[in-house]
Amino acid sequence: MAWFRKKNRNRRLDRRHVVLDVKLRSSQARALRVRWGTIAVSVSLATLFSLYVIWCAGEWALNRFLYENKDFAIQQIDIQTDGVIAPDELRRWAGIKPGANLLGLDLVRVKNNLEAWPQVKSASLERVLPRTLRIRVTEREPVAQAYAPVPRSTGGYDMRIFQLDGEGCVMLPLGGRQRSAPLPAAGEDLPTLIGITATDLAPGRHLDTPQVRAALEFVQAFDRSPMMGLADVVRVDVSAPETLQVTTGQGSVVTLALHDFDQQLRRWRDIYDQGVRQGQGNISTLDLAVPHNIPVQWQQAGVTIPPVIKTKPSTKYRKRNV
């Protein structure tokens, strides 16, 4: 019995020794993990701090030697446009501060500033080191105009002119100081579109109704048609859903379909020439929307309004400013 008790006692001592040994090993492993974790965190923080210092130093160097360097201050803005907007006006629209740094200039912002004006169709910018900014502008060319009442501050209304380019973009006419060339004495001499809702005539808005699109297409087709120089388009009524009604300076009222303007204008010329051969005078009414047996009425015999002298489209919007 004594031997058995001694043996059991030894076994209990062995188990205690194993438990203590396991606890010791666990503590050492935990301490090792903590130490390596601390080292990893320290290295990560040191790396991030080093990167931050490098980034700050790089930013300081860029600002000091490039973006704030007076050697790159803009001294010349080279502006060219294919239209009539004065270069000084384009400089104002660009919103570039005097002495701005060429390398630090936000070209996207300047481009957006210019293209925010309806008269500017597109703009491109280029840095020319060390001190020149080059700007190229493509303008919208008005092909027609429309009128809308605008309320006065003192009461009542004034009629304001709005212009439209070939894509239907609504613009306000350029003022005298905004132009590089003075307006002709006769004004813009653009056909007037009637039947457009006044609320649609907002600068920068694009009118895309089928009638307005057709009217603008017709005006441009007319300028390259056989009728150019023989008639003068004064008004185009876009209020009808399927046709355009064109009034000329010679007193003719011509109805057209909303498509195939080149063919309709050739028919107009054929009928015009036939009237000249027969001594009919000027056309009073003509319905070109009818494909066959075209209805035509002639003005009173002996009353002939001479054709316009204009023989080709106006090029006043294709002047180049440097």
- The rounded distance between the terminal residues' Cα atoms is 120 Å
Q: Residue ranges: pLDDT <50 for 5 or more in a row?
A: 311-316
Largest sheet: 6 strands, mixed
Helix content: 25-40%
Account of the 3D structure:
Mean pLDDT is 84; it is low at 311-316. With 322 residues, the protein is an alpha/beta fold. β9 and β10 form a beta hairpin. The chain is built from five helices and twelve strands. It has helices at residues 2-67, 87-94, 107-115, 210-223, 261-278, and strands at 76-81, 120-128, 132-139, 142-151, 157-165, 170-171, 192-194, 233-237, 243-248, 253-257, 283-287, 296-298. The protein has a six-stranded mixed β-sheet with strand order 7-8-9-10-11-12, covered by helices on one side. The longest helix is centred in the first third of the chain and has 66 residues, at 2-67. The protein is elongated, with a radius of gyration of 40 Å. Helix content is 36%, strand content 22%.
